[in-house]
């Protein structure tokens, strides 16, 4: 969390506001953190913990660590090298990167910096025609996974961000083709590389589960739904052909007074079973947080703001350091709990409010 303070110092008010904001009174944002206190670790002793092995299998690929970089838009707002610095750090630290639809760098450039194609986070364009163009483009770039974000289809109220933007005295038109204060996202998107040749409209509010069927038919990529917050929707996702789900509330940036994602995770894992890939993000700041999610049954854990704190303060090096700290803390927790491999971490490794799950 030391990086948070440094990021705040490094960033102009509007950009800090974009990073730090939740929605309304930021209660869901806070719940993501507070909910970790509902869980305690059950450490086993006298297991040989000389070596820890963090390797994790995800969609047939072997990951070095169960921690991945989640999608954060417009990363040039945080550092001039933006998504490229993040990609270089991800490559150096052998970490999977998920690229945002509203990235300030194109998927093709990120792919060359990363040395492999990233996961692609989809904000669905408003028409099927534009959606198909975007999906074909990222498929051609080699992206193995399409993560469709479905928690912003109704819009949102980022009040904290709006306040910071109002306090910013700079002339935004030197970088933005329209003032971010105006909230005209369609026009803003037109300047984003992933919307080249497209209208810029996105997040159709009329989307239903039939959209999942149609998207699934459109692509060979694995399809993951980002923003699943109930057992019912996790089951529907599986029934409609999704290959995995991400338990997420957009880092507390979608709906207000929701639950912390770690509190949602048990019902989702129980609904779809341990063989179905369930990912989670929201409020992960310590290796022990990651450990709790793995114990409940998450396949891997996404981080958002922490690596952006590192990026804002120190560019690529900052992202690398944040990834290193997460990995070192998770390794330590795994060894302390007598579970030095991912397979050994399970429901017996954790308690909820003192009771077995
Ligand atoms: C500044 C910012 C921008 C984000 N942009 C996107 C985005 O473009 N697409 C998306 O699916 N999620 C986006 N997210 C949500 C993250 O992918 C992730 O769900 C969330 O940040 C996890 O919570 P954390 O920040 O507490 O780690 C963004 C989050 C932040 C903080």
Task: Label this structure with key terms.
about 350 residues; alpha/beta; eight-stranded parallel sheet; three-stranded antiparallel sheet; 13 strands; globular; binds flavin mononucleotide
Can you walk me through this structure?
The chain has 357 residues and is α/β, with parallel strands linked by helices. It is built from 14 helices and 13 strands. The protein has helices at 2-10, 13-20, 27-34, 82-92, 107-114, 128-140, 159-167, 185-190, 209-218, 231-239, 261-272, 287-296, 305-314, 316-336, and strands at residues 39-41, 56-58, 61-63, 67-69, 98-99, 119-122, 145-149, 222-228, 244-247, 278-281, 300-303, 350-352, 355-356. The strands form three sheets. An eight-stranded parallel beta sheet has the order 4-11-10-9-8-7-6-5. A three-stranded antiparallel beta sheet has the order 1-12-13. Helix 6 links the parallel strand 6 (119-122) and strand 7 (145-149). It is globular and about 60 Å long. It starts with a helix and ends with a strand. The model has no long low-confidence stretch (mean pLDDT 96). Bound molecules: flavin mononucleotide (FMN). The site of flavin mononucleotide (FMN) has 24 residues, from helix 2 and strand 11.
Q: Write down how many β-strands occur, each being a DSSP E stretch of 2 or more residues.
A: 13
Shape annotation: globular
- How many helical stretches? 14
Which ligands occur here? Answer: flavin mononucleotide
Q: H/E order of the elements?
A: HHHEEEEHEHEHEHHHEHEHEHEHHEE
Largest β sheet strand count, sense and barrel closure: 8 strands, parallel
Strand order of the biggest β-sheet = 4-11-10-9-8-7-6-5
List low-confidence stretches: none
Please estimate the helix content: 40-55%
Amount of beta strand: 5-15%
Q: What is the averaged pLDDT score?
A: 96
Spatial gap, N to C terminus:
29 Å
Radius of gyration: 19 Å
- Structural class designation: alpha/beta
């Amino acid at each position: 969390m030391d990086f948070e303070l440094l990021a705040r110092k490094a960033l102009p008010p509007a950009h800090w506001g974009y990073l730090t904001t939740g929605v309304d009174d930021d209660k869901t944002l806070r719940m993501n953190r507070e909910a970790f206190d509902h869980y305690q670790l059950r450490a086993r002793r006298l297991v040989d913990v000389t070596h820890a092995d963090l390797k994790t299998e995800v969609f047939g690929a072997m990951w070095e660590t169960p921690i991945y970089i989640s999608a954060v838009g417009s990363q040039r707002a945080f550092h001039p090298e933006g998504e490229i610095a993040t990609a270089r750090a991800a490559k150096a630290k052998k970490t999977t990167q998920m690229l945002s639809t509203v990235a300030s760098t194109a998927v093709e450039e990120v792919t060359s910096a990363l040395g492999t194609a990233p996961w692609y986070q989809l904000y669905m364009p408003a028409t099927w025609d534009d959606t198909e163009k975007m999906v074909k483009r990222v498929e051609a770039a080699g992206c193995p996974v399409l993560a469709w974000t479905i928690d912003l289809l109704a819009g949102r109220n980022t009040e904290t961000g709006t306040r910071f933007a109002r306090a910013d005295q700079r002339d935004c038109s030197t970088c933005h083709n329209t003032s971010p204060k105006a909230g005209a996202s369609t026009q803003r998107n037109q300047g984003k590389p992933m919307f080249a040749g497209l209208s810029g409209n996105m997040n159709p509010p009329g989307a239903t589960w039939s959209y999942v069927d149609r998207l699934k038919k459109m692509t060979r990529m694995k399809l993951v739904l980002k923003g699943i917050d109930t057992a019912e929707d996790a089951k529907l996702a599986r029934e409609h052909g999704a290959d995995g789900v991400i338990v997420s509330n957009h880092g507390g940036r979608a709906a207000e007074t929701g639950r912390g994602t770690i509190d949602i995770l048990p019902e989702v894992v129980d609904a779809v079973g341990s063989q179905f890939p369930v990912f989670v993000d929201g409020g992960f700041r310590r290796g022990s947080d990651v450990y709790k999610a793995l114990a409940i049954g998450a396949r891997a854990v996404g981080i958002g703001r922490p690596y952006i704190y590192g990026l804002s303060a120190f560019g690529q090096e900052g992202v690398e350091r944040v990834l290193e700290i997460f990995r070192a803390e998770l390794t330590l927790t795994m060894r302390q709990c007598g579970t030095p491999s991912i397979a050994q971490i399970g429901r017996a490794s954790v308690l909820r409010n003192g009771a077995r799950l």
